[in-house]
Prior knowledge:
Layout: E1 2-6, E2 9-12, E3 17-20, H1 35-45, H2 56-68, E4 74-78, H3 81-96, E5 100-104, H4 125-129, E6 131-134, H5 139-149, E7 153-158, H6 172-185, E8 188-192, H7 204-209, E9 215-218, E10 229-233, H8 235-238, H9 257-273, H10 276-296, E11 302-306, E12 309-313, H11 322-327, H12 330-342, E13 345-346, E14 355-356, H13 363-381
Parallel strand pairs: 3-13, 5-6, 5-7, 7-8, 8-9
Antiparallel strand pairs: 1-2, 2-3, 4-10, 9-10, 11-12, 12-14
Helix pairs in contact: 1-9, 2-9, 5-6, 10-13, 12-13
Amino acid sequence: MLVSGRKAEVVDAAGGTFVDFIMGWGALLLGHQPSAVLQALREALRHGTLLGLTHPAEVELARLIAQAVPSVEQVRFTASGTEACVTAVKLARAHTGRATILTFEGCYHGHAESVMAHGSAGIPGVLARETLRIPYDDLDALETTMRRAGDRLACVIIEPVAANMGVIAPRPAYLARLRELTRHYGAVLIFDEVVTGFRVGLSGAQGLFGVRPDLTTFGKIIGGGFPIGAVGGGRAIMRRLAPEGDVYHGGTFAGHPWSMAAGVATLSAVMTRAPYEGLETLSQRLAEGLQEAAHAHAIAVQIHRVGSMMTIFFSSKPVRNVDDVKASRRDQFARWVAVLREQGILMPPSPYEAMFVSTAHTALHVKRCVDASREAFRSLADG
């Protein structure tokens, strides 16, 4: 049980201190308690807890997002990433007049019924029938599905870099072809950048790959650690949202002043100081150190990294999809995590999650992680 966090470290209930590579599941790009965010929150507290109507920070955060992400002309805030994905799918259905959606195995878009139709109990069959699911980064499956069902698809929703089966990036041509096919069949393309937005670059994964979706969902970083979500896109689709349009969306805590204040402070800092080059350098050093340490003890690993997010898979084979993740040595992963925890390093407990580097991490933190991993790999090699 954790009780506090500061910069790149967290403290548990027993008083133990750990270097944190979970970082609020990616939300804390600037680390725990960055001064700019704390200052913004103190100021926001002076003006109340909940205002009930639109306020200046909400407008400013929307402006910053639209400034950074070229595909976004208009933004609607939500209270979570799940709600953002719900809203995006609903918008797509209204815009196209179609019901069916296409999702990908291993991608996660929150726990709403439509996007969880094949991953949870309690989902009515009528919704499951309107949700198609195919393997991630499988071009043949994509082409076949689009030929068969493209003209009845309301949308295709995808993590442009998967972060919920570990970090798996699609081949660059895959996203470009997906964009071509959705345009051809008139389906709305939704990029779920709840994790990757402002994490892998200022314009997110869509900037990294040069592919513009119709709608984008955001979360995590844009709230600076506070509950938040957002959906953004071109005005032609976004104007369907009430009160301008006929797609209802509401929420007392959408656009909450504290989330907006933390978000404005975070994005302002990111856009002013451009941290991505430093994050890239430090993250690459960590990935290379882990790879070398594993190789030294003949431990087969695949290290996937996109910017400051990464996953280590204990596998001798390439990891391209969720079936490959299931086939990896998850027992070895668990032992690696346990040894690191004993050494004061906190990692996600599952290879289905990503680890994250923040601007608060230093070369010393990376060295501690690599050194602890050497001990873990030596333990694995000894059986």
